[in-house]
Amino acid sequence: MEDFINENKLIAEIDQLRTQFPDTQDLYREVCTLLFFRYGITPTANKLYQLVRKGSMSAPADALSKFWSNLRDKSRVRIEHPDLPETLKIATADLVATIWNTAQEEAHGSLASYRIVSDEAVLAAQTAQDGVVKSLEIAELDKQHLSEELSRALELNLNLQQQLTAVNTIKAGLELQILDVKADASSQQVRLKELTQDFTQELEKQRHALQLAEERFRTSETRALLEIDRERVQSSKLQKEIEQARLSALELNNRHQDELRRLQLSMGEYRQQIGSLQGSLEVITQSRDSSHKELVALRIRMEELQASLAFVKSESDGRLQQLSEIRNSEKKVATKPTRKNRKSDLAS
After folding, report:
1. What are the pLDDT digits (tens) for 22-43?
2. Of 264, 251, 268, 249, which is closest to residue 298 (Cα–Cα)?
3. What is the torsional sign of CA 23, 25, 29, 32?
4. Which of 93, 154, 213, 267 is least enclosed by beta carbons within 10 angstroms?
């Protein structure tokens, strides 16, 4: 991590030197000085070219050669004095160079200790920075998770709102359909009530007609029994026919009663079907169709009953006509002996 920080700092300073020294050799010279004196790095041609990347491969080598030559010249101290002998000048220069080198070594030692302290401080700061970065990364991950959860929650909320809107729409449509079905069922119930009343009235009329027919049968039977003594066989046959007609009428009445009870049961079923109409539209439709079919069947049955009653009525009228004819024939039979008796009396 320390090398990474120094590398970034070195690259930043080299970028500043690019703007200050546009010449290639001057730039390489300054980079050599920066590496050697500030960062304590021995410059090489490859290292210089990797950092600067300017000019040809010989440019950093030439600049490095000039740097070492200038450094050697500067490290040597020249004593220029006309009174000193040459050997003393050389000795003095070597002494000064030794003092310079010693001072430079001491400076490098202090610089190394300072670097250790600064590196420790940088390492501590970097550790703290790493902790902060990790905390930031964790916070960023938490933020991303929260954002994803919030997005999912918003999407779920939107879906729920859309589903609620669709459910409310379906509910409103079903309520309207239920109201329509209720109105239709009410009208059908009223119609069924009217048909039941009509059927009851018609049944009452037919029953009254049947009672009249029975009374006529009884009156005719009584008259026939009083007037016809000699025709007992025919009277007995007629009585059997009348009894059969009475049984047929009673059977018809019983059928009418059964039909009435079935109608009442059907009305109870219709009420149950009307109550179940609020449960589901399919059951409502089926119940409505079933009610319609049953109403049609009732109408057909009423027509059949009316036809049966008409047939019974016609048969009753025929029986009455037969009884009238029998009565007339009996009267004729009864009057014939009287005329014979009169002729015998006249003859005597």
Report:
1. 999 999 999 999 998 888 888 8
2. 264
3. positive
4. 154
